[in-house]
Amino acid sequence: MNKTTIPWILSLLALGIAVSAHFRSPTPVLSNVGRSQEEAMSPPANRSASAPEERPANPQIALADRSNPTAELMPLLVDMQDRLRSMESRMLEMKPGWENLALRGMVRLSEEELADIRLRATNPTLSDQDRLNAFQILRRQNGIDDHTAAAMAQLAQTSTDPQVRERLFQGMEGLTNAVLKGPLLAALSSETNPNVRQELVEALGGMRAADPEVEAWLRHLAANDEDEAVQREARESLNERLRYMPVDSLQNIVLQSALSPQERLEALERLRREDARSPEVVLSMLDLYATSQDPRIRAEVFEQLDGVNDPAMRDPLIIGLAEDPDARVRRRAASNLQSYASDPDVRAWLEYVAQNDQDAGVRREATRALRGGDQGGGRR
């Protein structure tokens, strides 16, 4: 029985007791039941003023009739029992709706109720779907403890239903329970369904703490997974993790030449927002510019180094403006050189490119850099 029905049941029982006490009182409440309505409603004039009150020949029988109103009370008690059964049945019917409200976060569950749902989620004798439903309620109610998280990770590895596995891993996104790391990494080695693998990668990437093993797996999937959607999810997870990394971890990523250029540039973008591009970071990125065969990477290096106040930037930017075969790189170099427009050599190159470059966009950026330098935007 749902505990919310108890107050109603107690109220009805109290009503029953009160009714019973009323019937058992010496007041002859039921004594008029046998009278006809005509007699009860007849005016006093029609009654004999001197007629004595009728009394039963045997007072003991009348007392027994008043003190034992079972015949009149039983229908009422039976009706009360039926109503109680109906209320309990309705509360049971309402349970799925109540859990749906809990799943949506529209009601907050007590610790006792959460403990009951945890037992359902971790009970191996229940169906996978029932356990999944319990897990989803707990997830919405922020009621996942380490024991429940470990049980759900095990269920995700053993369930034969790919939809259950997919929804379980989906529900694990954002959980930071350390007990999840091992099972999630193990599942990566065995899971073959691409939809499930996508959710698995997202759950793994959602573990915010910096972890070289997790990041190594994500990099491997981003570069080598057979499914493009899984690759894309791994790249997005890596980028998302950068948001929660401290500056020293971001700088370490930029300095690792063995990592992919894209990952290093994404870390550099975060450092740019934090205004934490150290001289070592700048030199490492300039080396990436000099060695990359991809013009998009070279242009991105200059874009993420924009605004850096470092003399080491001057010559690579001039080389990029004068010699790079890709117009995107030359436009980016011209824009960055505005900070150096007061330098005679830089100014000469900007004037030359503004007049002679084959790309109109490059000429426009060089002209803009010269005007910015004239207005005081150049480096002193």
Secondary-structure blueprint of this entry?
Blueprint: H1 6-24, H2 37-41, H3 59-67, H4 70-103, H5 111-121, H6 128-140, H7 146-158, H8 162-171, H9 181-190, H10 194-205, H11 212-224, H12 228-242, H13 247-255, H14 261-273, H15 279-291, H16 295-304, H17 314-323, H18 327-336, H19 344-356, H20 360-377
Helix pairs in contact: 1-4, 4-6, 5-6, 6-8, 7-8, 8-10, 9-10, 10-12, 11-12, 12-14, 13-14, 14-16, 15-16, 16-18, 17-18, 17-19, 18-20, 19-20
Task: Write structural notes for this entry.
By secondary structure, the protein is mostly helical. It is 68% helix and 0% strand. It has a domain at 284-380. It has 20 helices and no strands. The longest helix is centred in the first third of the chain and has 34 residues, at 70-103. The chain is elongated and about 115 Å long.
Tell me which oligomeric state these chains represent.
single chain
Give the mean pLDDT.
Answer: 80
Straight-line distance between termini: 81 Å
Number of strands: 0
Order of helices and strands: HHHHHHHHHHHHHHHHHHHH
Which percent band covers the strand fraction? under 5%
Tell me the radius of gyration.
Answer: 41 Å
Please give the count of helices. 20
